[in-house]
Amino acid sequence: MSKRVKMIFPVPMSEATRPMVESQLPPEFRRSDIEVGFVGAGSTITLADTYYDMAIMELAVIQAGIQAEEEGFDAVCINTVSDSGLAALRARLKIPVLAPGQSAFHVASMLGHKFSILTMWERWFPLYRKTLKEYGLESRLASIRAIDVRPDTVELLSGKEDIVFAKLEEAALKAIREDGADVIVLGSTTMHQSHAYLASRLPVPVLNPGVVAYKMCELFLDLGLAHSKKAFPSPETLKDAAFGV
Hints:
Layout: E1 3-9, H1 18-22, E2 34-40, H2 51-70, E3 75-78, H3 86-92, E4 97-98, H4 100-111, E5 115-119, H5 125-135, E6 141-146, H6 161-179, E7 183-186, H7 195-201, E8 206-207, H8 209-223
Parallel strand pairs: 1-2, 1-3, 3-4, 5-6, 5-7, 7-8
Helix pairs in contact: 2-3, 4-8
């Protein structure tokens, strides 16, 4: 029997943006026995550049995750390296819930001694520091490098390749040569268009976090695994109305 995975992009998706987001998982990365559905969450576009905006994304992702289980999906994959809503959805849902930050950081730790996060701007640094502390992986971080280019949740990196890709390569090489990075992790699923370029030019593994998280969903489904309910106990009473569900 086929399985269904819901990929939750943390902000609304226009019809123009959808193909770029869905291109994270080209046909060669998909299996015929697993159906993937992408959905944009909430009604507010945010760049997650402040703690205020992070809270808005958390609410949107939690709402979309609850709906995914109600719709009969077998797993939820949060499509943001901020891992917004991960712990809350693991408490609320029984199906597996995976996220790019946790997945990619742990895989990076398996591939090398130290990894660096390559990101667009410094305003995302608090996102990574928060999750790395929660996951106990601060000692495995070589550095966080930013190229100081404002992210675009609509066009992603389209039309900016000539400038952005070179900046990312330069920053990644500094992370490797100056900071001691053995592995590079892209700091956002919106940066996925740069993965092939960087992977072909850098001397270390480059992780595309959205793809890593999705493949973890496949693994969990194949092995019949889900998060521990001792670690993420279910609420005594449901309060889904707080999320508009």
